[in-house]
Amino acid sequence: QAAKTMISMLKPGGHLAIVDFTAKEDCERSMDQRFYKFWFGMDGVWLNEKQPAFLRDPKNGLSTQWYQEDPSRCPYTILYPTHYQFLGRKMGERRTGGDVKE
Fold first, then answer.
1. Is the pTM of this model over 0.90?
2. 47-76: string of b/e by CB count within 10 Å (b at 16+)?
3. From edge to edge, which strands make up the β-sheet containing 15-21?
4. Most buried residue, 8, 56, 68, 82, by CB count within 10 Å?
5. pLDDT tens across 9-22, in order?
6. 45-57 tens-digit pLDDT
7. CB burial class (10 A; 0-12, 13-18, 19+) of residue 32?
8. Number of other residues whose CB lies within 10 A of the CB of residue 84
9. Helix, coil or strand: residue 49
């Protein structure tokens, strides 16, 4: 719901950048990914591999400019949970001029 709200607030040609933890896309059922889901869940943080897929879906009106998944060390731990970086641009024409015409 939050991602839909952010997209609706963007003007055509506007950019949306998100960096967040997620379950690794190609192996969300592996033991370490299941542990990270449990561990983050203990603090009320729910890793959701569906959010990056939602953001990259062109039906949402965003053109993906950049997407990357990487493990990174969690401070003060030995853990390396996966995070994603997403940059999208809202498709459509700008009313005030500019180069956006998709």
1. no
2. bebebbeebeeeebbbbeeeeebeeeeeee
3. 15-21, 82-90, 62-71
4. 82
5. 999 999 999 999 99
6. 888 888 899 999 9
7. middle
8. 21
9. coil
